[in-house]
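Let's practice the habit of predicting before peeking. Look at the sequence and jot down your guess about where helices and strands might fall. Then scroll down.
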Amino acid sequence: MKKLTADCFRSVWGKIDPHKRMNTFECYGLDFMIDDDFKVFLIEVNTNPCLELASPLLARLIPSMLENSLRLVVDPLFPPPDNFSQRKQVVSELCPENKFELVFDERVDGPHLAEILKEKENVILEIDEEELSDADNEENNKNNRLCEDDLL
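Done guessing? Here is the structure:
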């Protein structure tokens, strides 16, 4: 699941937040399926995942996920007061500590991905130029045949 998630974000690295805005974050929902042989499949990625507490498990997971997300992205910018307890007094808290794991780091993967995209961009430009010249030749041939037909 971690590899599929990392590959997913690598594949759209240049499209997510192209303006590289500071102090923003997004929450994505990734849906996986596991077959009878325990092979994992990524089904879809949601940019606006449902945060409905529709079951007892989701009622425990989603608030913890949101709390941990906000601890990661907001607390460094606006630290809580010194006397603030990070530990909530919640019975049966499923994720008392941050359980996130970094699977894609733009600072590490970004330069390599930028080089790959630059190489592919050059290949695509070369192909487009060839296709354009082929298309121009076909169009000229077609026009020449039409002119010949008009003359006959």
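How did you do? The chain is about 50% helix and 10% strand.
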